[in-house]
Amino acid sequence: VNVSGLPGGNGDWVGIYPVGSSNDWGNVVSWSYTNGTHSMDSAGIVNGSVNLSGIANGTYEARLFFDNSFTLENSVTFMVSEEVVVSSKSFTDGGNTYMGRIYYNQVENVQRPIVYIVPGASGSVEEHRYIAETLVKEGYVAIAVSLDGFNANSVVNDYFNAFQQGELECEASGILLDNSRVGLVGHSSGAGVLPSLGYKFFVEQNMGNNGRFIFGATPWIDFQHDENQKLPIDTNFVTQWYHDDDSTDPQIYLDMFEYVDVNNKAFITVKTSSNPNHQNFVEPDVYNADIGITHYVLLADPDQHAVVAEGIHKPLKDLAYYTFTNSNKERIFSENRQDTTYYQITANGELPSDNFTVMEDGYNASALQFGCDGSGFANNPREAECEQFFNLH
Cα–Cα distance between 183 and 216 in angstroms, integer? Predict the structure, then answer.
């Protein structure tokens, strides 16, 4: 367990506990003073690592305590398991209108939560691989789909039908899905469809009753928006944008975030100084020019690895973990703003700032403008609300 900024007291200690258990001594699985022993004869470390052993497979929390007490100072959740082997299989409808891929860890008789992944309009199914494999290693099945062409008038049904085919492929292959725990992840126009797609899954199909979430990165327009189609109030909703991404009018996703009426919602700003259009989907150390998306980012240096791992995947994993286990809510939906090296998360339910001028100025100056009016694809059902957003704030 890595630690930093500790007081260095000889009574500082780290204990390993099963997730959800109390701090009682009887729940300790493994422990050590930060000096690396079970003795208080020497001072603890300020920065460094504490080694612990004898931990069986399972999900745990490493908890930090000072002064030989049981007053919790900090904690982190982790999983101990055998190495996860990620398998995948492709599927289509036979008519080449979409391509799909299922990512899974084949374990007999284990039902796993499902995360559906939706790209932008021009996205390839290949761009999902890294984020899908990350989710599988967290214990989920990921189903990713890309469409051959983008029809704004039918895109929600197109994705929904493709995902249903993916579910049938899972059933035929013995991949067990837990339909009571469901997440949706999308980027750009793929994120824009998530509220309407979520309505189909969560309300019409009655899925996600034991946990459901939506994670949309810089969403564009929800062309099938219907104000009568409300998401269940227990849907955990997260919008993410990159502070230097100026290609989409921010009024769209700010309006969408404000409009969604759910108990828990958070707005994440990823702090990065390079073009971030697809960082949430691209593998950090592999650039594939054959994918055909010319504005992919080559993530060869450690700083960009950290942006992906800490600024993008960590909040997504925290969201999925809270949604599916009802634990560690404060890591994604806190009563206070969270500000780290790589991202900022608003307090639960709050917009990112009262000053959106910088966001809008960047969009207006950009060459890639996807605006409130639908930019020639189709009409935006909330165009008027989108255009009025800045005037109302």
Answer: 11
User: H or E element: which one contains 266?
Assistant: strand 264-270
* CA gap 351, 364 in Å, rounded: 21
Q: Two tokens at 169?
A: 């492929």
Looking at residue 4, its pLDDT comes to: 85
Cα separation, 27 vs 50, whole angstroms: 19
Q: Which residues of 163-185 are buried (b: 16+ CB within 10 A; e: fewer)?
A: bebbbebbeeeebbbbbbbbbbb
Structure tokens at 184: 């949706």
Q: Using one digit for the tens of pLDDT, what is the confidence trace for 108-119?
A: 678 899 999 998
Burial of 241 (0-12, 13-18, 19+ CB in 10 A): buried
Write down the residue that tokens 């204990």 correspond to: 15
Global pTM value:
0.77
Helices 357-365, 250-259: crossing angle, 10 deg rounding: 140
Measured distance CA(222)–CA(338) in Å, rounded: 28
d(CA 246, CA 360): 8
DSSP 88-143: EEEEE-SSSSEEEEEEE---TT--EEEEEEE--TT--GGGGHHHHHHHHHTT-EEE
Length of the chain: 393
33 has pLDDT over 50: yes
